[in-house]
Request: fold
Amino acid sequence: MAIHRHDDHKSANGFMEWVDRRMPVTKVWNEHLAEYIAPKNFNFWYYFGSLAILVLVIQLVTGIFLTMHYKPDAALAFASVEYIMRDVPFGWLVRYMHSTGASAFFVIIYMHMFRGIIYGSHREPRELVWLIGCVIFVALMAEAFMGYLLPWGNMSYWGAQVIISLFDVIPYFGPMLTEWIRGDFVVSDATLNRFFAFHVILLPLILVALVFLHLVALHQVGSNNPDGIDIYDNVDEHGKPLDGIPFHPYYTVKDLIGVGVFLMIYFGVIFFAPDLGGIFLEKDNFAPANSLQTPPDIVPLWYFTPFYSILRASTDTLLAFLGVASIAVGVLAAIFVKVKAPWRVAFVVTGLVAYWVFDNTTGKAWGVILMGLAIVCFFLLPWLDRSPVKSIRYRSLPFKIALAIFVVAFFILGYLGMNSPTPVKTLLAQVCTVIYFLFFFLMPWFTSIGKTKPLPERLTSAEH
Amino acid sequence: MAEMNMADGHEVDEVENQKRRRFLTGVTAGVGAVGVAVGVTPFVLSMSPSERAKNAGAPVQYDFSKVRAGQMVKVEWRGKPVVLLNRTPEMMAGLGKISASLADPDSEQSLQPGYAQNPERADASRPEFLVMESVCTHLGCSPVEKLAIGPDPQMGDDSQGGFFCPCHGSKFDLAGRVYKDVPATTNMPVPPFKFEGNIIVIGEDDGRTA
Reply:
C-alpha cells in the first residue's frame, strides 16, 4: 500500500525517505532548526533561552541519578543525602550539579525574563510565548520549593512550614487546605513523601510539556530581536527575510560558545564553592530537620528572596500607608482626570473604600496577596506596556529610568530577604515593595510619554 | 444530507436530530464529568492526614516541678513545640506594663481555653506557669525566647522579656501576646492542659472551663 507523504521537504537519503514517509522527521528538523529563520543580530542576552534548556536537561539527568540513592523518608532522608555526598562514587558531583543547577536555572531564567522586558519580547504577537514562559517560572518555583524540602535539613523543614502556612490565610478553607497539603498537622514524613512525588514526577513532566509549548508558540510567531522590529518587513523575492539567518548552523554554533562559557562558570562553582558561602546551600540546612527548633535566621534560597521580602514588608505600617495613598490617588484622580462629575465622585469613593479595606484587614493576609500579585504582575506585562516601540534601544527616557529604579529595588528586596528583619530594613523593604508595584501600575503611563527614537528600516548590527 | 429538495418533514427531522444529538452529547458529557469527579475523589482524599497521623495526637505529660522560676522547657505535642515557662514575679509584673503596645491584650481574637483567657494566659491556680504552643501565628515558625528583662536588639530598649520570631520579626510578650505592628496579629495559642499534682498534661483538660 502506498504511503502518501504530506510535506515537500527533501529527504537526505533513501533511509530518511523511508522514515519521512512514516514520521515527519526532516520536516520538523527543517522547520524548527535548519530552516527556522532567526534575526541575524542576536546578542549576549539571547544565550539564556538555550542555556535554560541545557540546565533543564542537566537537572533531569542528575535528578534521575540522585533518586537511585535518595530515600524519601523523614527518618532516612537526611542521612541518605550525606550518604550520597560521602559514600556514593561521584555522588558529591551529581548532587552538587543538581543543587548548583537549581540556582543556575534561576539566574538564567531571570536573565531570560529581563531580556524579554528590555527588548519587548512580550509584546504583540508574542503574548502567548511570554504567558507560557510566566507559567514555566511559577512551575519552576514550585519545583524548586518542593525539591528544597527533600534533604530534610532544618532550613528545608522550616522553609516548607512557612510557605505551606501561607495558605492558612484563606478564610474558612485555609487550615483544611494546609492539612491536606501537608497530609498531617505539621510538616512530617507524609509531606516529605508527597513532595518527593511532585518533585520527581509531576512537576518535571509539567515543565517539559510547558517548555515544548513555549517553543511551539515561539516558532509560530518567530523570534524577536534587539531592535524590536519585524524581520518579515524586509523580504527578498522568495519571501525570505533579508535580515534572517537559519537557526542551524548559525545559532546552534553561537549558542555552543555560550554553553562553553556557562559550563566553565557552573563547574567553577561546583568545584570551588558549591555552597557559594551559604547562598546556594544554606548553612542551617547542614543540620537535620528539628520540629522544635526554628533556625535563628530563617531565609529561603536567594531566588525567592525578593518575593519573600514583599511578604515580610506587609505590616500595619504598610497597610496604613496604602490606605492613605489610595485616598490620595482617588482625590488626585478626581481633580486631574478629565471625566464627568459622577466619575470624579466614583474615584474618591473607590479611594475611601480601599482605605476602609486596608484599615480593617491584617498585614498577614496582605503579605500573601502582595507576594502573589508580585508574580501576577509579570503575566500582565504585554498589556501594561503601551510604548510605540519594543526595544529599549528606541524607547523613551521615562521607561529607561523606571526600569533602572525597578531593577535596583528588585535587588534590594532580594538582599533584604536574605537578612533578618530590623526596623530600618523593614522600612526599606516597604519602600522597595511600593516601588516594585508602582513600576507595573504606572507602566501604561510612563511607556506612553516621552520621545521615542525613530526605528531603523533594517536590523542594526556590526559588520563582521 | 439535508438536500434542498427534501420534503419539509425531513428538514424538521433533521433539526430534531440535531437537537437530540446536542442533548445526548450534553448528557453524556455531564455524566462523564460526574464520573471524573467520583474518580478523582479517592486521589484527592488520599492526600489528607492518615489514620496514623491522626492517632499521633495523644496527650503529653511532663513533671514541671523541675522547672524553676525563670526557667523554660520545650516539649513536643502533636509535632509542635510547646513552651512550659515558670515566670518570676518580675516577669509577671512586666506583663502589666506593656498592655498599651499589644495588639490583642485581652486575647479576644486568639486561641486559648477559657481558663487561660486572662492577662497571664495561665490557669488561675498557677498564674505564673505559662503553657503555650510556641508557634508564631504569622507563618508557623517557632519564636525564640528572650527571657531577660532589659534592652534587646530585637525586642527593643524597654523589653519586659518575650518571644521574637526570627522568620518575620513578630514580637510577643512573656504571655505569648503579640505586639502591635508586626506581621502576626493574634497571640500564640494555648493548648488545653490540666495539672495532676506535679504533672502537667498537655492536650487534655477533661472539658473544664475554669
